[in-house]
Structure formats: structure tokens, C-alpha cells
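As a representative case, we now present a protein record of this kind.
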Amino acid sequence: MELQQIIKKATANSISYPAYRELMAHHVAHKTNTGSEVTTDLANYTVLNNQRMKRLDKTMKILPENQEFLETFNKDVYFLIITESWCGDAAQTMPMMYKVAQAAGVDFKIVLRDENPELMDQFLTNGGRSIAKLILVDKKTGLPVTTWGPRPTKATALVAAEKAAKGALGPEFKQELQTWYNKDKGKDTENDLVEMLKAV
């Protein structure tokens, strides 16, 4: 299948951000998680991520200078996000992605990774199915303009340095990364996305 068809098919089955938040709440209530593998650990991450997103949805604010630019953004594009409920990086970045999309008047569509392997495999990160992945899609052509993710620039650098030093990401580092996200309050994600939109 051509990329255009893969994107079209995924978009047709996408859900909105409020619907995704409801889906997460449903999984929390049933002690389950999205994705092809359902485990206690992934269900617990879903609970944690749901709490995180609830907090970030309320507290994240766009910088006035970025708000000004976003309000004048007028390209015919939409955000297509690939994610799963258990992903910690997604929980930390999606509330800000949504705020940026809203401010720019851009449609925000979400699909689940494991339900869309053809789409995911077109947008791998270093050969891996890393999420969250944002695909900026041109409404006219149905093709990607650019992509973003799975992490903001500074977090990506932290992860790369840790992998270079230790070969893998241990539990301690994962905790440090969440602490970094909490201090950053979505600003790195916001700035990345604004730069991405300025470039198109």
C-alpha cells in the first residue's frame, strides 16, 4: 500500500483528543491498557499517565509570543499522532501537542500504534517503533510534511547520552527523565512544535 493510502486509512480510524482521554479513563477503570500486549505493568503505567495528563491538561500554558504566532498560522495541515496509553513520553508531550494544535486551529487526530503497524513502520525512530510520533499531514496531498517525536529535543539528547554511556535506559534514568519533564512543563515540546510549524 502507498504511503498516502496508509495515512488515509489510519486517519479514517482516528479519534479526537477528548475521545482518547476517555479511552484512557476506561482502561484505568478496567485495570487494562491499549496495545496488543496487556500486562499489569502496562496497566499501571496507564493509571500513572492518566493522572499525569489530567494534571498537564489543566496546568500547561502556551507562551504569549508562541500564542501570537499560532493564531496567525494558516496552513492546510493536521496532526496525526501515533501513541499508546502506557507510554510515559506520550503522556508528558501529548497535552502540549493538543494545546499547540488548538491554538493553531489545526485538527488533532490520534491512532494507536499496535492497531496501525503499517503506518508506524513508515515512521520509525532509529529502526524502532518509538512513540509518541506526530505526523504533520498536508490535507490536500494526504502526505506527510514533516514529523516530530518521540521526545522533545532536550529529552532526546538526554536519552542519547544515557544510551551512549550505558547502552540501555535503566529504571533510575527513566525516573530522572520524568523529573526533567516535570520541571520543563512542556516548554521544550512547545518550542519544538512552534519551530516545526514556522518551518512549513
Q: What stands out?
A: The mean pLDDT is 96.
